Amino acid sequence: MRWWDIDPVLELERELFPEDAWSAGMFWSELAHARGPRATRRYVVAEEDGEIVGYAGLAAAGGLGDVQTIAAARDQWGTGLGSRLLTDLLGHATAFECTEVLLEVRVDNTRAQKLYERFGFEPIGFRRGYYQPGNIDALVMRLTTTTDPANPATSVQETEIHHG
User: Fold this and answer.
1) Where are the alpha helices (DSSP H) in the chain?
2) pLDDT tens, 104-161?
């Protein structure tokens, strides 16, 4: 993800997460930490026919990775795009030398929870009222990365994931 991707990413963000969408400033702040030798972030976008159809971000520090965001356009649901985005993030968690990766997911988003479980994430707790203003709880999940959790040979198929 690069700065010129922020506006189209925001459109998708608002469509998918109308109550708790990230702001442009949040994305700018994350991207400020995604470049250079001291980078602690990894943000990617997925494009199809020149249009952004998904995006994902990871923060890493002190051996701990945190999936900050992952999203796929509704017309991409069931295509494997979420798996490809998560595979990319987990590959970079390994590159950042993370020994575990955490994430929060809405308790009512069972589709995403199943994706994370397929990758080996396990529930470890809840964050009450984490998603605002809807006051929705978050399920906290963790993956311990003692070995390479991602298969780097995963096919991107027709969706390009752009590495920024």
Assistant:
1) 6-16, 24-32, 81-95, 110-118
2) 999 999 999 999 999 999 999 999 999 888 888 999 999 997 644 444 333 333 344 4
pTM score, whole prediction: 0.84
Give the Cα separation of 154 and 23 in Å (integer): 31
Residue 164 has pLDDT above 70, yes or no: no
Q: What does the angle CA 58 – CA 61 – CA 65 come to, to the nearest 5 degrees?
A: 40
Give me the half-sphere count of Cα atoms (radius 13 Å) on the Cβ side of residue 92.
Answer: 23
Give per-residue pLDDT as tens, 52-69.
999 999 999 989 999 999
Which positions are annotated as active-site residues?
104, 116
Nearest one of 74, 27, 48, 7 to 161, comparing CA atoms: 48
Q: Count the neighbouring beta carbons within 10 Å of the beta carbon of residue 144.
A: 13
Asked if 26 and 40 count as a contact pair (C-beta separation under 8 A), the reply is no
**Nearest by Cα to 53 from 13, 102, 93:** 13
DSSP tag of 3: G
CA-CA distance, 101 to 62, in Å (whole number)?
11
